Amino acid sequence: MTNTLSNVLGSPFRFLIKALLEIQSYTFLASRAIANLFTRPIYGREVILQMDRIGVGSLTIVLLTGFFTGAVLAIQSEGALRRYGAVSMTGQLVALTLIRELGPVLSALMLAGRIGSGIASELGSMVVSEQISAMRSLGTDPIRRLVTPRMIAMIMTLPLLTILCDAMGMLGGWVIAYYKLLISSNQFWSDAMNALQFSDMVGTLMKPIVFGFIISMTGCYVGMRTHGGTEGVGRSTTQAVVSSSILVIAADFFLNNLLIHLAPLMNP
Predict the structure, then answer these.
(1) Closest CA relative to residue 216, chosen from 111, 125, 136, 142
(2) Of 38, 82, 177, 226, whose CB is crowded by the most CB atoms within 10 A?
(3) How far apart are alpha carbons 50 and 62 in whole angstroms?
(4) How far apart are CA 146 and CA 46, in angstroms?
(5) Is 85 exposed, middle or buried (0-12, 13-18, 19+ CB in 10 A)?
(6) Are the C-beta atoms of 11 and 3 separated by less than 8 Å?
(7) 24-44, pLDDT tens digit by residue?
Protein backbone atom coordinates (compact mmCIF):
# COMPACT_ATOMS: atom_id res chain seq x y z
CA MET A 1 0.00 0.00 0.00
CA THR A 2 2.83 2.38 0.89
CA ASN A 3 4.71 1.58 -2.32
CA THR A 4 1.59 2.13 -4.40
CA LEU A 5 0.93 5.49 -2.74
CA SER A 6 4.52 6.61 -3.24
CA ASN A 7 4.38 5.62 -6.91
CA VAL A 8 1.16 7.59 -7.43
CA LEU A 9 2.56 10.67 -5.70
CA GLY A 10 5.93 10.34 -7.40
CA SER A 11 4.62 9.98 -10.96
CA PRO A 12 3.77 13.68 -11.46
CA PHE A 13 7.13 14.66 -9.99
CA ARG A 14 9.01 12.30 -12.29
CA PHE A 15 7.01 13.58 -15.27
CA LEU A 16 7.85 17.17 -14.33
CA ILE A 17 11.56 16.39 -14.01
CA LYS A 18 11.55 14.59 -17.36
CA ALA A 19 9.74 17.51 -19.03
CA LEU A 20 12.23 20.02 -17.62
CA LEU A 21 15.16 17.92 -18.84
CA GLU A 22 13.60 17.71 -22.31
CA ILE A 23 13.12 21.48 -22.40
CA GLN A 24 16.72 21.98 -21.27
CA SER A 25 18.08 19.67 -23.97
CA TYR A 26 15.89 21.28 -26.63
CA THR A 27 17.00 24.76 -25.60
CA PHE A 28 20.66 23.72 -25.60
CA LEU A 29 20.38 22.30 -29.12
CA ALA A 30 18.56 25.39 -30.39
CA SER A 31 21.05 27.79 -28.80
CA ARG A 32 24.01 25.92 -30.33
CA ALA A 33 22.35 25.91 -33.74
CA ILE A 34 21.77 29.68 -33.52
CA ALA A 35 25.31 30.32 -32.22
CA ASN A 36 26.72 28.50 -35.26
CA LEU A 37 25.32 31.28 -37.46
CA PHE A 38 28.00 33.67 -36.16
CA THR A 39 31.03 31.42 -36.53
CA ARG A 40 32.63 29.47 -39.34
CA PRO A 41 32.34 27.17 -41.19
CA ILE A 42 28.82 27.63 -42.53
CA TYR A 43 27.80 24.88 -44.93
CA GLY A 44 26.23 26.97 -47.66
CA ARG A 45 25.93 24.08 -50.10
CA GLU A 46 23.94 22.08 -47.56
CA VAL A 47 21.67 25.10 -46.94
CA ILE A 48 20.92 25.37 -50.66
CA LEU A 49 20.22 21.65 -50.94
CA GLN A 50 17.83 21.81 -48.01
CA MET A 51 16.09 24.87 -49.42
CA ASP A 52 15.56 23.01 -52.68
CA ARG A 53 14.20 20.01 -50.82
CA ILE A 54 11.91 22.08 -48.59
CA GLY A 55 10.81 24.77 -51.02
CA VAL A 56 10.60 23.11 -54.43
CA GLY A 57 9.64 19.74 -52.98
CA SER A 58 6.77 21.20 -50.95
CA LEU A 59 5.53 23.65 -53.58
CA THR A 60 2.77 21.47 -55.02
CA ILE A 61 1.20 20.46 -51.72
CA VAL A 62 1.28 24.03 -50.39
CA LEU A 63 -0.28 25.48 -53.54
CA LEU A 64 -3.06 22.89 -53.59
CA THR A 65 -3.72 23.40 -49.88
CA GLY A 66 -3.97 27.15 -50.31
CA PHE A 67 -6.22 27.01 -53.40
CA PHE A 68 -8.78 24.62 -51.97
CA THR A 69 -8.74 26.30 -48.56
CA GLY A 70 -9.64 29.63 -50.15
CA ALA A 71 -12.33 27.97 -52.25
CA VAL A 72 -13.86 26.25 -49.24
CA LEU A 73 -13.81 29.52 -47.27
CA ALA A 74 -15.73 31.27 -50.02
CA ILE A 75 -18.28 28.46 -50.25
CA GLN A 76 -18.82 28.23 -46.50
CA SER A 77 -19.06 31.99 -46.04
CA GLU A 78 -21.96 32.26 -48.49
CA GLY A 79 -24.51 30.76 -46.10
CA ALA A 80 -23.53 32.98 -43.17
CA LEU A 81 -23.17 36.19 -45.17
CA ARG A 82 -26.36 35.72 -47.18
CA ARG A 83 -28.44 35.90 -43.99
CA TYR A 84 -27.31 39.50 -43.54
CA GLY A 85 -27.25 40.40 -47.23
CA ALA A 86 -23.47 40.70 -47.14
CA VAL A 87 -22.37 38.15 -49.75
CA SER A 88 -20.38 40.94 -51.41
CA MET A 89 -18.02 40.92 -48.41
CA THR A 90 -16.69 37.47 -49.32
CA GLY A 91 -13.40 38.96 -50.48
CA GLN A 92 -12.79 40.56 -47.08
CA LEU A 93 -13.59 37.36 -45.23
CA VAL A 94 -11.35 35.20 -47.39
CA ALA A 95 -8.46 37.67 -47.27
CA LEU A 96 -8.52 38.22 -43.51
CA THR A 97 -8.98 34.55 -42.63
CA LEU A 98 -6.29 33.32 -45.00
CA ILE A 99 -3.60 35.91 -44.43
CA ARG A 100 -4.07 36.32 -40.70
CA GLU A 101 -4.47 32.69 -39.75
CA LEU A 102 -5.00 29.81 -42.16
CA GLY A 103 -2.22 30.55 -44.65
CA PRO A 104 0.69 30.51 -42.17
CA VAL A 105 -0.73 27.72 -40.00
CA LEU A 106 -1.71 25.34 -42.81
CA SER A 107 1.61 25.86 -44.59
CA ALA A 108 3.45 25.09 -41.36
CA LEU A 109 1.37 21.98 -40.69
CA MET A 110 1.97 20.70 -44.21
CA LEU A 111 5.71 21.13 -43.76
CA ALA A 112 5.60 19.61 -40.29
CA GLY A 113 4.14 16.48 -41.84
CA ARG A 114 6.37 16.38 -44.88
CA ILE A 115 9.68 17.97 -43.83
CA GLY A 116 9.63 17.55 -40.04
CA SER A 117 9.11 13.82 -40.37
CA GLY A 118 11.78 13.62 -43.07
CA ILE A 119 14.34 15.42 -40.92
CA ALA A 120 13.62 13.16 -37.95
CA SER A 121 13.83 9.95 -39.98
CA GLU A 122 16.98 11.07 -41.79
CA LEU A 123 18.88 12.07 -38.66
CA GLY A 124 17.47 9.11 -36.75
CA SER A 125 18.79 6.73 -39.39
CA MET A 126 22.20 8.40 -39.14
CA VAL A 127 22.16 7.97 -35.36
CA VAL A 128 21.24 4.28 -35.33
CA SER A 129 23.75 3.54 -38.10
CA GLU A 130 26.44 5.42 -36.07
CA GLN A 131 27.12 7.95 -38.80
CA ILE A 132 26.77 10.74 -36.23
CA SER A 133 29.41 9.08 -34.02
CA ALA A 134 31.71 8.71 -37.02
CA MET A 135 31.22 12.38 -37.84
CA ARG A 136 32.23 13.36 -34.30
CA SER A 137 35.28 11.11 -34.42
CA LEU A 138 36.42 12.90 -37.59
CA GLY A 139 36.18 16.26 -35.83
CA THR A 140 33.00 17.49 -37.51
CA ASP A 141 30.33 19.06 -35.36
CA PRO A 142 27.04 17.31 -36.30
CA ILE A 143 24.98 20.25 -35.06
CA ARG A 144 26.85 22.66 -37.32
CA ARG A 145 26.82 20.22 -40.25
CA LEU A 146 23.27 18.84 -39.96
CA VAL A 147 21.08 20.99 -37.71
CA THR A 148 22.02 24.59 -38.54
CA PRO A 149 21.62 24.26 -42.35
CA ARG A 150 18.17 22.74 -41.91
CA MET A 151 17.17 25.50 -39.53
CA ILE A 152 18.36 28.22 -41.94
CA ALA A 153 16.66 26.59 -44.93
CA MET A 154 13.34 26.19 -43.13
CA ILE A 155 13.30 29.75 -41.78
CA MET A 156 14.09 31.18 -45.22
CA THR A 157 11.72 28.94 -47.19
CA LEU A 158 8.54 28.76 -45.12
CA PRO A 159 7.70 32.52 -45.41
CA LEU A 160 7.95 32.26 -49.19
CA LEU A 161 5.73 29.18 -49.25
CA THR A 162 3.24 30.96 -47.00
CA ILE A 163 3.03 33.91 -49.40
CA LEU A 164 2.33 31.49 -52.27
CA CYS A 165 -0.25 29.68 -50.15
CA ASP A 166 -1.99 32.99 -49.40
CA ALA A 167 -1.95 33.95 -53.08
CA MET A 168 -3.39 30.63 -54.21
CA GLY A 169 -6.00 30.81 -51.45
CA MET A 170 -7.11 34.21 -52.69
CA LEU A 171 -7.26 32.81 -56.22
CA GLY A 172 -9.42 29.92 -55.05
CA GLY A 173 -11.73 32.30 -53.22
CA TRP A 174 -11.99 34.50 -56.32
CA VAL A 175 -12.92 31.52 -58.52
CA ILE A 176 -15.85 30.65 -56.24
CA ALA A 177 -16.86 34.30 -55.74
CA TYR A 178 -16.81 35.07 -59.48
CA TYR A 179 -18.33 31.93 -60.95
CA LYS A 180 -20.63 30.75 -58.15
CA LEU A 181 -21.50 33.83 -56.09
CA LEU A 182 -21.51 36.16 -59.13
CA ILE A 183 -19.32 38.77 -57.45
CA SER A 184 -17.36 40.95 -59.86
CA SER A 185 -13.59 40.67 -59.91
CA ASN A 186 -13.11 44.37 -59.13
CA GLN A 187 -15.31 44.18 -56.07
CA PHE A 188 -13.71 40.98 -54.76
CA TRP A 189 -10.12 42.17 -55.08
CA SER A 190 -10.76 45.75 -53.93
CA ASP A 191 -12.62 44.51 -50.83
CA ALA A 192 -9.85 42.04 -50.09
CA MET A 193 -7.09 44.64 -50.39
CA ASN A 194 -8.96 47.28 -48.39
CA ALA A 195 -9.60 44.85 -45.55
CA LEU A 196 -5.90 44.12 -45.02
CA GLN A 197 -3.70 46.20 -42.75
CA PHE A 198 0.03 46.47 -42.24
CA SER A 199 -0.13 44.29 -39.12
CA ASP A 200 -1.65 41.50 -41.22
CA MET A 201 1.34 41.60 -43.55
CA VAL A 202 3.73 41.53 -40.61
CA GLY A 203 1.90 38.60 -39.08
CA THR A 204 1.84 36.51 -42.23
CA LEU A 205 5.64 36.89 -42.48
CA MET A 206 6.53 36.70 -38.78
CA LYS A 207 4.55 33.56 -38.03
CA PRO A 208 6.28 31.37 -40.66
CA ILE A 209 9.70 32.38 -39.32
CA VAL A 210 8.76 31.17 -35.84
CA PHE A 211 6.99 28.10 -37.20
CA GLY A 212 9.94 27.22 -39.41
CA PHE A 213 12.30 27.40 -36.44
CA ILE A 214 9.98 25.17 -34.40
CA ILE A 215 9.56 22.55 -37.14
CA SER A 216 13.24 22.32 -37.99
CA MET A 217 14.47 22.23 -34.40
CA THR A 218 11.85 19.72 -33.30
CA GLY A 219 12.66 17.40 -36.20
CA CYS A 220 16.40 17.67 -35.52
CA TYR A 221 15.99 17.25 -31.76
CA VAL A 222 13.82 14.17 -32.04
CA GLY A 223 16.01 12.69 -34.77
CA MET A 224 19.25 13.22 -32.85
CA ARG A 225 17.79 11.42 -29.81
CA THR A 226 16.65 8.34 -31.74
CA HIS A 227 17.40 4.96 -30.19
CA GLY A 228 16.19 1.42 -30.66
CA GLY A 229 17.21 0.70 -34.24
CA THR A 230 14.83 0.96 -37.18
CA GLU A 231 11.81 0.73 -34.87
CA GLY A 232 13.11 3.78 -33.04
CA VAL A 233 13.33 5.68 -36.33
CA GLY A 234 9.63 5.07 -36.88
CA ARG A 235 8.82 6.29 -33.39
CA SER A 236 10.92 9.41 -33.91
CA THR A 237 9.18 10.19 -37.19
CA THR A 238 5.75 10.04 -35.57
CA GLN A 239 6.89 12.00 -32.53
CA ALA A 240 8.39 14.74 -34.70
CA VAL A 241 5.16 15.29 -36.63
CA VAL A 242 2.95 15.28 -33.53
CA SER A 243 5.25 17.50 -31.47
CA SER A 244 5.82 19.98 -34.29
CA SER A 245 2.10 20.29 -35.00
CA ILE A 246 1.22 20.88 -31.35
CA LEU A 247 4.01 23.42 -30.89
CA VAL A 248 3.00 25.27 -34.07
CA ILE A 249 -0.61 25.59 -32.89
CA ALA A 250 0.50 26.65 -29.40
CA ALA A 251 2.92 29.22 -30.84
CA ASP A 252 0.15 30.54 -33.09
CA PHE A 253 -1.97 31.26 -30.02
CA PHE A 254 0.76 33.36 -28.39
CA LEU A 255 1.72 35.11 -31.63
CA ASN A 256 -1.89 36.08 -32.27
CA ASN A 257 -2.12 37.66 -28.84
CA LEU A 258 1.15 39.51 -29.44
CA LEU A 259 0.03 40.80 -32.83
CA ILE A 260 -3.31 41.96 -31.44
CA HIS A 261 -1.52 44.06 -28.84
CA LEU A 262 0.98 45.42 -31.37
CA ALA A 263 -1.58 46.13 -34.13
CA PRO A 264 -2.44 49.69 -32.91
CA LEU A 265 1.27 50.58 -33.05
CA MET A 266 1.84 49.14 -36.53
CA ASN A 267 -1.30 50.34 -38.30
CA PRO A 268 -1.40 54.04 -39.26
Answers:
(1) 111
(2) 177
(3) 17
(4) 8
(5) exposed
(6) no
(7) 999 999 999 999 999 888 888
